[in-house]
Amino acid sequence: MLPILLAALSAVVWGVGDFSGGKATQTARALTVTVVSQLASLPVLAVCVAMMGGTGPTVAALGRGFLGGLVGLVGILLLYRGLSQGAMSVFAPISAVTTALVPLTVGLAVDRTPSVPALIGAGTAVVAIGLVSRAPGGAARVTPALMATALACGVCFGLFFVVLGRSGAQVGLWPLVGVRAGSLSLGLLAAARGRVSLVLPRTARRWAVVAGTTDILANALYLLAATRGPLAIVAPIGALYPVSTVLLALGVDRERVAPTQLAGLGLAATALVLAAT
Asked: Which one of 5, 53, 197, 198 has the fewest beta carbons within 10 angstroms of its own beta carbon?
């Protein structure tokens, strides 16, 4: 039960981070927002590691986290690239469902088989993710490049879930140090090569700080969940982060929610109940 609760909390916090990052990118470049938000997360990361550092850092834990940070940042950049093409109703569900399917498949292959209700809950979560992520609007033009970008984005995020989930409980939150080292190394390199300024307008900077803080907290919650429960169940629950993003968009920005998204919200609740069985 505890791993499911932690995974659900990580999804809520991740959704807040995604919403905040989206608000920041309305007035600033995506790469700048990403790098600044991750720099802003460092003090919170230090507190998290100090509180739950486990047995201490190991080369394996830091290296695994570094790899996760690299693929995670590539996934973020692919996400922004795909959404910028104006096909959110196609790109978002494909990438989101792929994100959940990758760790689900890996978890079933390498971990113990979960209970039947929990497995049904994980499958329900995958369906819910696809429905919630589908933006309102008409049909968008689907191209092979768009499909490839969406799938690659989902694979990157899915591998991030897998890498963190296979870290082992004894190392505590030290893998997150590797995650941030990997993502910041790649982000700063990309900014330097592209001569991208890291200065943000005041409003965007505030949203970026919120995005970075919530992102690292969500990472910590997910890592605690995935090292204590089956990856095949914990990861799809953690991947339900679009739910809180949609709810915030509805409550804060008064965005219109499609019937399919409402159905997805209901399925997400069902998935949580089944997964906890």
From this structure: 197
Q: Are 244 and 15 in contact (CB under 8 A)?
A: yes
Task: Write b or e for each residue in 160-199: b if 16 or more Cβ atoms lie within 10 A of its Cβ, otherwise e.
Answer: bbbbbbbbeeebbbbbbbbbbebbbebbbebbeeeebeee
Q: Are the beta carbons of 85 and 256 closer than 8 angstroms?
A: no
pLDDT at 65: 92
Tokens for 143, please give them: 């191209």
What DSSP line would sit under 105-147, residue for residue? HHHHHHSPPPPHHHHHHHHHHHHHHHHHT--SSSPPPP-HHHH
- Element (H or E) spanning 152, and its range? helix 144-165
| Contact (Cβ atoms closer than 8 angstroms) between residue 82 and residue 91 | yes
- The two tokens of residue 257 are 């929610």
* Angstrom distance (rounded) from CA 257 to CA 265: 11
- Put simply, whether the predicted model's pTM sits higher than 0.70 gets the answer yes
Q: Which domain holds residue 187?
A: 2-275
What is the average pLDDT across 37-44? 94
The shares of helix, strand and coil residues in the chain, as percent rounded to the nearest 5, are: 75, 0, 25
**What is the distance, to the nearest Å, from the Cα of residue 213 to the centroid of all Cα atoms in its chain?**
14
Q: 2 by DSSP, 3-state: which? A: helix
Q: How distant, in Å, are the alpha carbons of 41, 68, 87, 250, 269 from that of 92?
A: 25, 21, 8, 17, 20
Q: What is the pLDDT of residue 175?
A: 92
Give the side-chain half-sphere CA count within 13 A for 225: 29
Give whichever of 26-35, 104-113, 253-262, 265-274 has the largest mean pLDDT: 26-35
* Six-digit token string for 267: 């399925």
Beta-carbon count within 10 A of 111 CB = 16
